[in-house]
Design brief:
Layout: H1 6-17, E1 20-23, E2 26-29, H2 33-56, E3 62-66, H3 70-86, E4 96-100, H4 104-107, H5 113-116, H6 124-131, E5 137-141, E6 153-158, E7 166-170, E8 184-186, H7 190-199, E9 204-206, H8 213-221, E10 227-231, H9 232-237, E11 246-247, E12 262-267, H10 271-278, H11 283-298, H12 328-346
Parallel strand pairs: 3-4, 3-5, 8-9, 8-10
Antiparallel strand pairs: 1-2, 5-12, 6-12, 7-10, 7-11
Length: about 350
């Protein structure tokens, strides 16, 4: 506590004692001067404390809503760091707050996702918090986001997409082909199950293999299953790729729609938040995810349907083919026709890019 030194007290006392207060004919020395000084001093100290408390409880400029799993938090922190890099005001301490929200999918772990039913198992409660203005933006794994969005919300931003492939993890085998017949692979994904058993019908699948990455790896180490499949993107974001036995090619295991992509949503009438997150958008990812989600919407896909899909830019490679008689004149015509088609599709200046 800050106090007045003796010389200050004497000076103030002398200043006030030279005056008097007249009351019904009596002259009273101003003996209250020291008390007044003390009161003023206490008032100043209280004001100082109030300022400090106000600083400590600074209202965040952006509240990020997210699930509480290690992977979800890693994605929220990645979003926070990118936001901080775009604005000096967001880089200040306390400017961005992360709010953890438990979803239906997090609460019910005893049943397969397909048995729980419904859509938005990992997003519903976060969407509600957004609409109730309890958070300002929501960070989602895009493969968890239903093909519809709640009214009054938009999802205008996707961060750069991570590796879309699946990872094979086993303590005893280096690949799916090395697993002995009858081996049990743990996965809660119908997409992975259908592709796995189509290629390796001698294997078995434990469907209710639920939980975050750490939980599933623990079950694997405990011998509950002989192998599991996880999204490589999640393992990379958690810096846990040392557990990977093999990376499955897209031809061997087509990924889930929007796998590896992070989406950021906000309220449709919140222009300030929309402007903040627009700076983070990766357009190539956004276009690919939009294409895949349109495909899923057409099929009315959900956690009950084993649907996979992957859209990507093909590096400007144009292909065509022709069939015809194996004779000179016919071969010339097919070559010319194929060339004309590609020129038409490529447009002017294709070879200059």
């Amino acid at each position: 506590m800050k106090t007045l030194n003796p010389s200050n007290q004497a000076l103030i006392s002398a200043n006030f004692s030279s005056r008097s207060v007249s009351a019904t004919g009596f002259s009273l020395p101003c003996l209250k001067s020291q008390v007044l000084c003390q009161r003023r001093k206490l008032t100043v100290v209280k004001a100082s404390v109030a300022v400090e408390q106000q600083t400590q409880t600074k209202v965040a400029l952006i509240r990020i809503g997210t699930r509480g799993s290690p992977l979800a938090l890693a994605q929220a922190y990645e979003t926070r760091d990118k936001l901080m890099a775009t604005s000096s005001e967001l880089a200040e301490e306390g400017a961005i707050q992360i709010v953890v929200i438990k979803t239906t999918g997090d609460k019910i772990l005893s049943q397969p996702l397909a048995d729980i039913g419904g859509k938005g198992l990992f997003t519903k409660e976060i969407d509600e918090a957004l609409l109730n203005s309890e958070i300002d933006i929501a960070v989602h794994s895009m493969k968890d986001v239903p093909t519809y969005l709640p009214e009054k919300t938009i999802l205008p931003c996707n961060l750069p997409r991570e590796d879309v492939r699946d990872a094979f993890i086993s303590l005893n085998a280096s690949s799916l082909a090395d697993l002995p017949a009858g081996s049990v692979v743990g996965t809660a994904s119908l997409r992975r199950k259908s592709q796995l058993l189509n290629r390796y019908p001698s294997l078995s699948v434990l469907e209710n293999f639920r939980g975050n990455v750490q939980t599933r790896l623990k079950k694997l180490n405990e011998g509950v299953v002989q192998a599991t499949l996880l999204a490589l993107a999640g393992l990379k974001r958690l810096s846990m790729t040392e557990h990977v036995s093999a990376i499955l090619s897209i031809d061997d295991m087509l990924p889930a729609v929007a796998q590896g992509a992070i989406g950021i949503a906000c309220r449709s009438d919140d222009d300030k938040m929309a402007n903040y997150i627009a700076k983070l958008n990766h357009e190539e990812t956004r276009l690919a995810v939009a294409c895949e989600r349109a495909f899923l919407l057409t099929l009315d896909g959900s956690c009950r349907t084993p649907i996979a899909g992957y859209a990507c830019r093909d590096e400007d490679v144009l292909e065509t083919s022709r069939k015809g008689a194996y004779a000179y004149d016919d071969m010339i015509l097919m070559g010319e026709d194929a060339g004309k088609e590609l020129l038409s599709r490529a447009g002017p200046g294709f070879f200059d890019s």
